[in-house]
Amino acid sequence: MSYSQTNTDVEAAADDLRRRTLAHMSTYLERMIYLGSTRDYNSGVYYHDGLASRFSEMVACEALANCHRDAFHEVLQSSIENLVQQLDSYVQSTRSAPLELIAAWKNLQPYRVAVPAGTDTLAADFLCSNVKIALAIWESHQDGRSRRQPDASLPQLPAQ
Amino acid sequence: MIQLIISLLVGVALLASLYFFVRRSKPSAEGSAQQLREARQTLDSLQFGLLPNDLVHRIFAKEDLEYVVSSAPADVQSLFLSERKDIALGWVRRVRGSILELMRFHRGHARLYAQLSAATETRLALNFASLLALCRFLQIAVYLRGPYAAPGMVRTVAATAGRVCNISEQSLQFLKVKELDPLNNTPSSHGASV
Q1: Considering its fold, how many domains does chain A have in total?
Q2: Which residues of B touch chain A, with CB atoms under 8 Å apart?
Q3: ipTM confidence
Q4: How many CB pairs under 8 A join A and B?
Q5: What's the domain range around A111?
Q6: CA torsion, ordered B146, B152, B157, B162, to nearest 10 deg
Q7: Which of A86, A95, B19, B80 could, after both became Cys, cross-link A27 (CB 3.0–4.6 A)?
């Protein structure tokens, strides 16, 4: 298979991936985490059964890697404010308990392994630093909300 | 007697310096190729990793500070300033390190391969010197007063580094890493694997 043919296939596969899978994810953070999770941590190779069956394993791998890099770049370019919004959307999309998710993210820092291979170390550090700050801000907003909510939902004591 | 010893010592010192000079002026073919390749990689790292406008703008973006100050408690604000300071210092350190590497390469090897004019070499030397000094000032400013201390200096460092890269690019134009290593030109090496 020629290089240009492979390249065209990779673009077609990436397009397919964007339309069928990534379009359902509303934020670049979510896409970056998802695409990072399709990579085998031992070999660094990306796997996607559906895409591999439509194209080939190699083409699917390249397409996933390209989309992963794009998503990473977009997250890197996001302002802190935008990143906090993306984090909020991500928490809602996972349907897990927000405080548990935040605790896990703070302890395990899963976003560190979601960095594409070959990324400049400064860019990787910058992204992790931004996510860490966004987490802290999001948590402080949650604290504010949870402090307000119990007050609002406290049963009214009967007047003495 | 003392004069004889001094003369002998001076003679030995001169011979030793001559020996080192001769050794340095004959780089091996493999060593030179390696240094050329490293210089090309340093240049790529500067141009595509450290100096892109969007990355520099984002690291030093004041809008992030304004947002954090307006919507986060004091402890998160300090966390933000400390994290951004580390990143900013890391950026300046990396730019300075890369510029030093390029300067060493130019001083030692560029003249053997490139057809640089005296005017270009002088301009390059001045740019190197001013850039290294600027990076040092910026490091001190960021260290003492935080990442937003000298936005003008950040812009100047990025612009001057860009100019140095362009001049270095001219002298290394004949050498592209992709062309040097055809194995790296295959589609499977475009970041799909670690």
Answers
A1: 1
A2: 45, 49-50, 54-55, 58-59, 61, 63-64, 67-68, 71-73, 75-76, 79-80, 83-84, 86-87, 90-91, 94, 186-188, 190-194
A3: 0.81
A4: 94
A5: 3-151
A6: 130
A7: A86
The verdict on a CB contact (< 8 Å) between A132 and B64 is no
What is the gyration radius of the CA atoms in chain A, in angstroms? 20
Contacts of residue A7, defined as CB under 8 A and 6 or more positions apart, other chains included, come to B187
The C-alpha atoms of residue A88 and residue A105 are separated, in whole angstroms, by: 13
**Model pLDDT for residues B173-185, shown as the tens digit of each residue:** 655 544 444 444 4
| CB-CB neighbors (< 8 A) of B91 in chain A | 122
| A133: nearest CB among B59, B80, B191 | B80
Write down all domains in chain B, each with its CATH number in brackets. Answer: 31-178 (1.20.120)
DSSP track, A46-101: B--HHHHHHS-HHHHHHHHHHHHHHHHHHHHTS-HHHHHHHHHHHHHHHTS-HHHH
Q: What is the pLDDT of residues A80-129, one digit of tens each?
A: 999 999 999 999 888 888 888 888 988 888 889 999 998 989 999 999 99
3-state helix, strand, coil in chain A (%, to 5): 75, 0, 25
